[in-house]
Amino acid sequence: MDQELREYLDERFKSIDERFKSIDERFKGVDDRFRESAELLQQFRQETNQRFDGINDRLEEVEADLRHTNVVVEDLHGQIGLVAEGVATVNAKVDKLETKVDDGLKEVRADNQRLYRDLDSRVRKLASA
Prior knowledge:
Helix content: over 70%
Strand content: under 5%
Mean pLDDT: 93
Number of helices: 1
Shape: rod-shaped
Structural class: mainly alpha
Order of helices and strands: H
Low-confidence stretches: none
Radius of gyration: 54 Å
């Protein structure tokens, strides 16, 4: 080979080597960006997992509160049933008492009318005498 050809080829290989170095640097940049993206993705995953853990903890608290509320509601339901039974019993007793009072008042009125008639007849006898 002659010298010119060698120099030409050396120059071309140097140019190709420089282009490969440039491509290698670009790949390193891409690798760095992928690494950064992977780190950001990992950080995002960790933050998301922490948030979900917090949400799960809060849901467990809500579930516990709901179970407690259900127990309280069931207890109140039973107590309301007892109150309703008591009200029904009191109503029955009031009805019986009302009937007794009405009967008693009828008797008193009848007695008063009889006594009034007797008194009226006595007063008339006295007035006429």
